[in-house]
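Researcher: Let's do a round of design. I'm pasting the structure tokens now; please hold your answer until I've finished.
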């Protein structure tokens, strides 16, 4: 089965069709698109909560990384989807995973002023001392952006 149909269906946000495709072809859960994104990374990028739930129910790898080294949780932390973050975290996503630049979900949430996500990540064990490849923590990024409320949380 061509995985492109799955990715096209995800882009449309059609959770029922994604469910059907995965029931008929369970191996598609491990497919990646031309950019190296998994189905879960793509669904979360678009903010599709129901599609995310379907993918998680079909045992999508919560910590799989796209071609840039970002997990689904990292991606939503700069886009700002707290409901999807909760789904991922509740199902075991690694809150401290790092990409090739050393970025974490917390660093992205802090950099992009996602207060609710910063709080959620900290409550779920995000390590505030992790530094990216530039030697900066989430707090450093918040400070550089002038995000006083975020900086105070960290």
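Researcher: That's everything. Go ahead.
Model: Designed sequence:
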């Amino acid at each position: 089965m061509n995985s492109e149909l799955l990715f096209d269906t995800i882009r449309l946000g059609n959770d029922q069709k994604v469910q059907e495709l995965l029931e008929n072809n369970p191996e598609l859960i491990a497919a990646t698109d031309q950019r190296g994104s998994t189905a879960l990374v793509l669904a979360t990028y678009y903010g599709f909560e129901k599609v995310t739930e379907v993918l998680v129910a079909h045992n999508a790898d919560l910590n799989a990384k796209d071609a840039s080294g970002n997990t689904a949780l990292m991606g939503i932390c700069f886009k700002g989807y707290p409901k999807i973050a909760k789904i991922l975290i509740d199902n075991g996503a690694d809150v401290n995973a790092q990409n090739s630049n050393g970025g974490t979900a917390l660093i992205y949430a802090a950099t992009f002023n996602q207060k609710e996500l910063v709080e959620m990540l900290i409550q779920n064990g995000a390590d505030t001392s992790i530094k990216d490849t530039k030697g900066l923590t989430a707090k450093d990024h918040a400070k550089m952006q002038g995000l006083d409320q975020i900086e105070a949380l960290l």
